[in-house]
Amino acid sequence: MAKVEERRSTLPKGDLKDVLREMLLIRRFEEKVEERFRAGELPGFLHVAIGQEASAVGVCRALEDGDVISSTHRAHGHTLAKGTHPNELMAELYGKTEGCSHGYGGSMHLFDVQRGNMGANAVIGGGLPHITGAALTFQMRGEPRVAVGFFGDGATNIGTFHEALNMAQLWQVPAVFVLEDNKWAESTPESQHSPLRDLSERAKAFGMKAIKADGQDVEAVFKAARQALEHARSGKGPVFIHLDCVRFHGHYIGDPQVYRPKDEAKELRETRDPIETLRDRLGLSDDEFAELDTEVTEIVEASVEFAKAGTDPAPEDALKNIYA
Fold it and tell me: How far apart are CA 313 and CA 309, in angstroms?
């Protein structure tokens, strides 16, 4: 594992096209998933994070081998960014045994422990105690690893958020708490669920270091994540990262979004799309972008075919992995 002082705090320019490809893959994957869900092919509920690709890619790009994450009910981007193959993720959404959770998880319970993904969680803020616990394990074992928890603004009002951050700061464990603040808490404006307009102030209540960054700028996210990870990995305690994010879609597929100004999402797509921001920064021509788009679209289409050809779970396995 690389030494702390040798880690880069900025993304190398030569890597930015690959970063754009990764964000575009997540975007096209979620668009395809929405299409297949509306066609009635996917069971359960579906929540996409279209517009928030930079936070997933920027943070996961900053991780080292051995670091782990926990996610939310909006987990497809985090799962792909952490290294799960699109085939395995799509198979999971189709409920196939070839899926990353062998068909038991579905969209809101995506696990891939082998790749350091400790799981998505349908319970708001439910993954944060897991991250504090994982970080305590790393501390007690003397391992130079960090546990990272993603969550949204609504989770900052949940008891497990305060409990997890309190214990993490008390024990000075190597944890990083990443707030993807899209300001909607599912469907409630932030002004109606929090007395604070700056949610990084929540961390200060525990004496925890806080870092703010533009969640729509993948380079800014990476820089903030590197700084936070180095702080935590060096034994200086946990860090709270506040990312200002934008959610282009509703809380769930089919959400009428009556709580939101009618043209808001369209306007935000035109001004704060993380993919277009990076594309412009790279100066890619239409042909270059189209080539990249074709490449990732083919990967996504292949993942659908892989999932459809997958193995349905055996009925007698329905009660496996249930503990009561």
Answer: 13
Is pTM, for the whole model, over 0.85? yes
Q: Name which of 304, 323, 291 is nearest 90 in CA terms.
A: 304
Residue spans of alpha helices (H) in 94-146: 128-141
Written as six digits, the tokens of 258 are 């009556």
Phi-psi domain of 62 (left: phi exceeds 0; alpha: psi -120 through 50; beta: other) = alpha
Q: Give the three-class secondary structure for 146.
A: coil
Handedness of CA 31, 34, 39, 43 (dihedral sign): positive
Nearest partner of 167 among 144, 135, 209, 198, judged by Cα: 135
Give the domains, in start order, of the chain with CATH numbers: 15-303 (3.40.50.970)
What digits encode the pLDDT tens for the residues 29-45?
999 999 999 999 999 88
Q: Does the pLDDT at position 5 exceed 50?
A: no
Rg (CA), the chain: 19
* pLDDT, position 7: 59
